[in-house]
C-alpha cells in the first residue's frame, strides 16, 4: 500500500479519535499529504475546529506570512507540508484566560498519533512551532533562545530528522517581534529556506492527491 493511502487512512482514524474526555472535538488535522517536511503545532484554538483546519486564525496568518517569504503561500504550504500537532483537539479555556495547556496524559495520548505519522512519512525536516511542540523534541531546552535559529538533529517515534524550531506566532507573544527573537526567527527561516527537503517542495509538481501538476 502506498504511503499516501496509508496517511489518508491514518488521518481518517485520527479524526474519529475520542480518547481524551476533557478535550473539545472536532479533531483538527491538516491535509493527508505525503511530504518530507512536517510541521508540529501545539493544539488548535477555539476557531480551528469550526474552520476545520489548523492555524486557521490570526496566528496562522502570521505564520503563513513567514513561510510565504521563503517561497510557499499558505495554500501551497497546506498542500505540500504535513501539518501535525502535539494535541489535535481544542483543550478549552484556562480559568485565568488563554487556552488551557494540555495535560501530560493528553500529550502522551496524542503523541501516539504523532509517532505513527513519523514512522509513515519519515520526514527529513521537522518544524516544531512554540514551546510545547519544541519540548517534545528537546525536553532539555528551557528557553526559545536555546533552540531557535539552529538546525539540530532530533528523533521522535524512532525516526531521526533535522529540526528547525520556530516561536509561536500568536499575537499574545512578543518574543518573535523583539530582540533577540526577531533576529533568531530570521535566521531560522533562512535555514528552512536552505534545507534540501524544503527546497524539494518548491519545485514539487505533485499535488496532495499525488497527481502531477501542469505548473508547480
Ligand atoms: S487530543 Fe489527540 S488523543 Fe486526545 S482526543 Fe484529541 S486526537 Fe484523540
H-E order: HEHHHEHEHEEHH
Assess the beta-strand content as a share of residues.
Answer: 5-15%
Terminal residue distance = 26 Å
Ligand catalogue: iron/sulfur cluster
Whole-number tally of structural domains = 1
What share of the residues lie within helices?
25-40%
CATH architecture annotation name: 3-Layer(aba) Sandwich
CATH superfamily: Uracil-DNA glycosylase-like domain
Q: What's the tally of helices?
A: 8
What is the SS-derived class? alpha/beta
Radius of gyration: 16 Å
pLDDT averaged over residues: 94
Textual characterization of the structure:
The protein is α/β, with parallel strands linked by helices and 216 residues long. It has one domain (3-202): Uracil-DNA Glycosylase, subunit E (3-Layer(aba) Sandwich), CATH 3.40.470.10. It has eight helices and five strands. The protein has helices at 3-15, 48-51, 58-69, 74-80, 104-121, 131-137, 181-194, 196-202; strands spanning 37-41, 82-85, 125-128, 151-156, 159-164. It has a five-stranded mixed sheet with strand order 2-1-3-5-4. Strand 4 (151-156) and strand 5 form a beta hairpin. The longest helix is centred in the middle third of the chain and has 18 residues, at 104-121. It is globular. 38% of the residues are buried. The mean pLDDT is 94. Iron/sulfur cluster (SF4) binds next to helix 5.
Amino acid at each position: 500500500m502506498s504511503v499516501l493511502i496509508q496517511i489518508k487512512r491514518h488521518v481518517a482514524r485520527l479524526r474519529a479519535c475520542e480518547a481524551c474526555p476533557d478535550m473539545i472535538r472536532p479533531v483538527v488535522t491538516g491535509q493527508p499529504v505525503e511530504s518530507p517536511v512536517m510541521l508540529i503545532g501545539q493544539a488548535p484554538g477555539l476557531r480551528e475546529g469550526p474552520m476545520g483546519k489548523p492555524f486557521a486564525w490570526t496566528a496562522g496568518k502570521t505564520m503563513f506570512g513567514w513561510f510565504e517569504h521563503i517561497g510557499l503561500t499558505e495554500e501551497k504550504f497546506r498542500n505540500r507540508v504535513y501539518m501535525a500537532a502535539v494535541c489535535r483537539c481544542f483543550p478549552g479555556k484556562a480559568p485565568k484566560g488563554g487556552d488551557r495547556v494540555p495535560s501530560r496524559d493528553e500529550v502522551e495520548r496524542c503523541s501516539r498519533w504523532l509517532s505513527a505519522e513519523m514512522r509513515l512519512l519519515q520526514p527529513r525536516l521537522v518544524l516544531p512551532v512554540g514551546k510545547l511542540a519544541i519540548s517534545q523534541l528537546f525536553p532539555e531546552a528551557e528557553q526559545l533562545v536555546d533552540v531557535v535559529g539552529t538546525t539540530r538533529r532530533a528523533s521522535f517515534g524512532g525516526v531521526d530528522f533535522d529540526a528547525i524550531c520556530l516561536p509561536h506566532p500568536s499575537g499574545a507573544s512578543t518574543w518573535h517581534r523583539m530582540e533577540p527573537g526577531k533576529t533568531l526567527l530570521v535566521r531560522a527561516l533562512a535555514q528552512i529556506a536552505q534545507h534540501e527537503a524544503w527546497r524539494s517542495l518548491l519545485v514539487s509538481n505533485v499535488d496532495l492527491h499525488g497527481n502531477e501538476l501542469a505548473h508547480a
